[in-house]
Amino acid sequence: MPNFMKSSLTRISWMTRLTFLEAIRQRFFAFLILLSAALVLSSVSFRFLDFGHGELKFVCDFGFGGMFLFGSVLAVVMSAQLFFAEMDNRTALTLLAKPVSRTEFLVGKFIGVWLVLGVFIFTLSTLLGIILWARCQELTATAIEVGKAPPELSITGLLSYTGMQWARLGVVAAMILMVASLARTFLFTVIVGSMLVVAGQLQWLAQETLLKPGELNFFSKALLSISTYIIPNLQQFNIGDALTLDHGSVADGAVTLALFSGTCYIVVFLFIGSLIFRQREI
Amino acid sequence: MKALRVQWMLAIFCLGLAGVIAELSWTKVRVSIPEMGKKQIEPSLGQGMLLGILGGFRTVVADGAWIRSYVLWERRDRAGCEALMRTSCLLDPRARFFWENTGYVIGYDMAHWEIRKRGGYAKVSAEIQDDLFKKYAQHGINVMDEGIKYTGGNVGILISAGQMSELKLKDFSQAASYYKRASESKNAPWFVHFLCARALWESGETKKAYDWYREVWQKKLSNEDDHAPDDLEHLRFMEDQLHLALLQRIPRQSWEKNN
To answer: Domain limits of chain B?
Structure first.
């Protein structure tokens, strides 16, 4: 590896370490992880509210909902907060005065945030996996007793879904850092970022509409086409039910392609973010 | 300056490329998300179900929508009740409960609500009443058909659709076709074979009903532990009604009761 690349990676790893330590100590992170864990743990007690779903599906849904909702909130708020903390405290000036490039600063921030999001997602997933496994054992025993088919549960499927959610949160964090590199205030970043997340979750609707464009005029068609390329389709990472409870229904290579797509978006958003950030006055 | 412009062009190109890859990925992933469809989410718009559509807590939101639909059911609000019930179906399309009960409410209750809204049973003529019962029953069956598709042919929904065809539409051929599909599935309940034969019989295809029932009994039911004596009794009744000769009948079983 060339020397300049080695030293650049070292600087990125410092930035990552700093960001990770700063983020993991935040009360907001602790609060959200506790809230999500409580939600996952309480899912078993809420079974009586359920109508006709499989019990494992209900528990899964609580866990996946927690990962989706609180994970998104954490990715949006924490990425913006950590970026603007450096700006507002003027520590960014000190850092960038050293031989740290703005791209390295942004990439370091991203990896640090992404690692924290990984801690969040994998902690919740482990907790959910334990609960699902324990309930699956009990339900299997009961099903065998009454001569019914035992429920299906795929722990590897849960692991794949966790990886996909981590990729999704990575896309969200990269997108927020891109917005933050352009924005002047924390609040603006959080609001625009949240809107982008909602748009990303609903982006598939634009794709569906484009499949039957008969009723659309040229302007709407062009707008929809552009939006499908610019806004990432975050719904492609939401196949938790199929992966965990009905593993056979997922097409071959779907997970790999979704992860690849997520990685592409992360790289592109960070690239655009660094282009904007390089021209920004601090 | 030129280098920056090139970088920006490269960034835009890469963004487009990422979009193409995402599109490819979505086509692969989409089949695993049956609840996703532009047309299917239309009934949920304006129902406050955004979180479920976005992707989190789908089951919980579906349950919430179902509870809310009960309130509208009590108020006999046809449009609201159906919209919320369809929302539950959309958010969790693999659950039998939502499809079956939505079909029941539409097929069995809503015609009565409309008759009452039009002034009551005394004011609405019998023809119009009959027309309304059939219209709503067909609508309920259509909902159940969707459920059958999404659940991969759930036996419970098939039987319910057959029952509604029989009771409300008086279409015994249609009922028989639903019962037959239920009878052919792996976990068919013991009574569904008789329901199918009876519906075929009522539709006027008496010989066809007997032949089909006899084949099922000989190939499947007679191999069960108790040899399905009730089904054989029904077959004997059919043989009598069809005036079959002794040799055309099912041979007498050693365990069969004397009548």
So the answer is: 205-259
Of A57, A251, A265, the CB nearest to B59: A57
Look up residue A164 and give its two tokens.
Answer: 């996909």
Provide, as residue numbers in chain B, all residues whose Cβ is less than 8 Å from the Cβ of A207.
23, 26
* Secondary structure letter of residue B188 according to DSSP: -
For chain B, say whether A71 makes contact (Cβ under 8 Å): no
Burial A220-229 (b: 16+ CB within 10 A, else e): eeeebeeebb
Pick from A45, A109, A35: which is nearest to A71 by CA? A35
> How many CB atoms within 10 Å of residue B47?
20
Q: With an 8 Å Cβ cutoff, are A232 and B22 in contact?
A: yes
Q: Which domain holds residue A72?
A: 3-278
DSSP class per residue in B213-250: HHHHHHHTGGGSTT--HHHHHHHHHHHHHHT--GGGSP
Neighbours of A61 (CB within 10 A): 26
Which of A77-81, A195-199, A265-269, B32-36 comes out lowest in average pLDDT?
B32-36
Interchain CB distance below 8 Å, B15 and A272: yes
> In percent, how much of chain A has pLDDT > 90?
52
Q: How far apart, in Å, are the Cα atoms of A82 and each of A106, A110, A267, A271? A: 11, 10, 20, 19
* Contact: B11, A268; criterion CB under 8 Å: yes
The Cα–Cα gap between B20 and B25 comes to: 9
Is the model more confident about A27 or about A209?
A27
Q: How many beta-carbon pairs under 8 angstroms link A with B?
A: 145
Whether B173 shows a pLDDT value over 90: the answer reads: yes
Amino acid A221: pLDDT: 85
d(CA B176, CA B216): 14
Average pLDDT, chain B: 87
Mean pLDDT over the full length of chain A: 89
How confident is the model over A124-178, as pLDDT tens digits?
Answer: 999 999 999 998 998 889 888 887 778 888 899 999 999 999 999 999 999 999 9
Q: What is the DSSP string of A8-59?
A: HHHHHHHHHHHHHHHHHT-HHHHHHHHHHHHHHHHTTGGGGG--SS-HHHHH
Rounded to whole angstroms, the Cα distance separating A7 from A1 reads 10
Contact A251 B15 (CB under 8 A): no
Cβ B53 vs Cβ A65: under 8 Å? no
- How far is residue A107's CA from residue A199's CA, in Å, rounded to a whole number? 24
Contacts of B56 in chain A (CB under 8 A): 64-69
Nearest residue in chain B measured CA to CA from A235: B55
ipTM exceeds 0.90, yes or no: no
Write the DSSP assignment of A183-228 as a string of letters: -S-HHHHHHHHHHHHHHHHHHHHHHHHHHSGGG--HHHHHHHHHHH
Nearest residue on chain A to B17, judged by CA atoms?
A229
How many independent structural domains does chain A possess? 1
Quick: pLDDT tens for B49-62.
666 666 677 888 88
